[in-house]
């Protein structure tokens, strides 16, 4: 197989990891919404934690993206 | 049609990675035994960020009126934000480290926000910048922990109340996850900034490539770029916040062990 084609396929494969992050971010927000629905008085505290959780999960997605960039451009 | 294709090819010719190029503004190489300490565009934007923060805080606290004006309320908002963050994550002992966390937060925040100005340079989109900050935070936090607890600090790697049978498995994992902290902390910030700016530039490229043929469909990527810019502003704030929160959580763990 040509190197260039292999690089493209590799970058595409590396981006599969983003699916997990999609599930994770959905889970973070879904849990937060149901928590606030059950107990609206706790909203301030939960939303702070939610953003930390969101950023942590998103970072994992970006690690996958970083690998894809490294495969493509180095 | 030919001109349109030319323009499209011209638009594709620009790499979205071009905006991250570092070029020296004042060359300082020869005098320092081969060390390249040139004043680059990255350094310039760091200086601008630092000057902006200093000017804001200086101007905001000059009047010191009981009923704050616009600038003073902004500075008070910023101050209270970091103070609350530190208080809820570290507690009373964290007061001592407030100046450092305030500096860290405002520097990253202004770096991210100044990077959103078209044509400017985002210094937080380079791993060496974020890694230097992260390694400093983790090293300092480790030193504070050892200084406070002595040898007892190393019980950090053996969580309380876990059966001795799983210790050989758990301790290496804990040590590894501790050592990976500067990498995850720095890569999070840098990749967020880099990916966001690449995304913006790619969609901006779509506008040029599309509008050379027909103007009307180019509205779609234009609208998307505007929406993404809004998202990027949110991300710029969020990542500065997350970097500071995680640093304060690390400090809390070092001060109180777990």
Characterization of this structure:
Chain A has 74 residues and is mainly alpha-helical. Chain A has a single domain, classed as F1FO ATP Synthase (Up-down Bundle), CATH 1.20.20. In chain A, 86% of the residues lie in helices and 0% in strands. Chain A contains three helices and no strands. Chain B has helices at 2-13, 41-60, 70-89, 98-114, 127-149, 167-179, 181-211, 219-256; strands at 24-26, 39-40. Chain B has one domain. Chain B starts with a helix and ends with a helix. Mean pLDDT of chain B is 86; it is low at 1-9. Chain B has eight helices and two strands, in the order αββααααααα. The longest helix of chain B has 38 residues, at 219-256. With 258 residues, chain B is an all-alpha fold. Helix content of chain B is 67%, strand content 2%. Chain A binds chain B through residues 51-52, 54-56, 58-59, 62-63, 65-66, 73, and chain B through 17, 184, 187-188, 191-192, 195, 238-239, 241-242, 245-246.
Tell me the overall shape of chain B.
globular
Beta-strand content bin of chain A: under 5%
Kindly report how far apart the N and C termini of chain B lie: 68 Å
The CATH architecture classification of chain A is Up-down Bundle
Helix content of chain B: 55-70%
Helix content of chain A: over 70%
CATH superfamily of chain A: F1F0 ATP synthase subunit C
Counting helices, strands and paired strands, the structural category of chain B is mainly alpha
End-to-end CA span of chain A: 18 Å
The strands making up the biggest β-sheet of chain B line up spatially as 1-2
Shape of chain A: elongated
Q: How many strands of chain A?
A: 0
Which blocks of ≥5 consecutive residues of chain A have pLDDT under 50? none
Compute the gyration radius of chain B: what is it? Answer: 23 Å
Oligomeric state as shown: heterodimer
Q: Biggest β-sheet of chain A, characterized?
A: none
Low-confidence blocks of residues of chain B: 1-9
Proportion of residues in extended strands of chain B: under 5%
